[in-house]
Amino acid sequence: MEFIDYYKILGLTKSASEADIKKAYRKLARKHHPDLNPNDKSAEQKFKQINEANEVLSDPEKRKKYDQYGKDWQHADSYEKARQQQGSQGYSNQRTYTSGGQGFDESQFSDFFESMFGGGGFSGGGRRRTAQFKGQDLNATLRLNLTDILQDQKQTISVGDKKIRLTIPAGVEDGQTIKIRGYGGEGMNGGPKGDLYITFEIFNNTRFKRLESDIYATENISLYTALLGGEITIETLSGKVKLNVKPETQNDTKVKLTGKGLPKYKKDGQFGDLYITYKVELPKNLSAKEKELFTELSKLR
Amino acid sequence: MAREKYILVEQYCKHSNIEDTFINRLHEYGLIVFEEKQNDLFIDENDISEIERMFRLHNDLGINFEGLDVIRRMLNRMDKMEKEMDLLQKKLRLYE
């Protein structure tokens, strides 16, 4: 367990007056309040620290104890160090599921604080009041491969000790968050349960670039196919497809394969498109004969 | 999973730390809408997260009701802009 410098957290020195502490705390609380910094874990952490610092320094008794004890802290012992229960929990290959509370639970003070001032017992005054009715909302991240979202997927995930069966709609976006009502923490005093927010991280394990339900790829064609036309076979998400390349196809020509993209999110039976850009490959290491023929060709122009 | 659920304001205040004056003022400022049934006032369960967020901002930072409205609008705008930025970044990636 590490010593925590509460003065430093509030940007103050030991000689700070009560008014200085109040001012510094309020300023930092406005800056780092989690409700004003959505999806920012570091702000949440910071806010907790600021509150803890204020809890100690704004209370003359606690401050006195802290000031006296602080310098001898090293002797206090080496506690169980990282008591971090949070973290990630693998749950199947390539899919990691992490969970954590959203918002903040200000009853959670650091080990340092608890060892010095004890757990629960709060002196009135600065105690923050929170509404405790609806259960806490939970946040989770679910990682999937792009090839996993071609169809709706039924999956069972575990949040804490609860198992949740859910259907992941085909075509879900990378970074998209869905809300699953009632799967958060228990409500208090008969209040409704919190909600579970699942954010998807879609790993693109294909050669296609994705924009919503459309996908993009480049395909190399030979100079001769480009000039004279011909048939090529390309790989799509749903298997091989034959394409007719028109004679005199220019480099960077784009063709659209309607309906060969990803399924559209929550639009059953609808698909995006696949765009293929042709890249003409020029022959290398020309033989003498080829050079001769190209020279001849160039004279015809 | 779309089920509408309303909670009696009186009930909600009794069980949470939030006073009915706070809820009433949110309503006055148009920050929430009451559902009225047979002279009883209800709040939408879907509004609870928002109510509790506004309560924290009011309580922790001393933000008044005008301020809560402004913050809510700003956060909504920020959210919209972040989504737009995300889409633009994805579009940009097509050209990389």
Automatic annotation (TrEMBL), chain A:
CDD domains for the chain: DnaJ, DnaJ_C
GO biological processes: protein refolding
PROSITE patterns: DNAJ_1, DNAJ_2
InterPro entries assigned to the protein according to its UniProt record, in alphabetical order: DnaJ_C (IPR002939), DnaJ_domain (IPR001623), DnaJ_domain_CS (IPR018253), HSP40/DnaJ_pept-bd (IPR008971), J_dom_sf (IPR036869)
GO CC annotations, alphabetized: cytoplasm
Region (Disordered): 51-70, 75-100
Keyword line: Chaperone, Metal-binding, Repeat, Zinc, Zinc-finger
Comp. bias intervals (Basic and acidic residues): 59-70
Protein name per the record: J domain-containing protein
Organism: Aequorivita xiaoshiensis
Automatic annotation (TrEMBL), chain B:
Protein name from the UniProt record: Chaperone modulator CbpM
Lineage top rank: taxon: Bacteria
Species this protein is from: Aequorivita xiaoshiensis
Pfam families the record matches: MerR_2
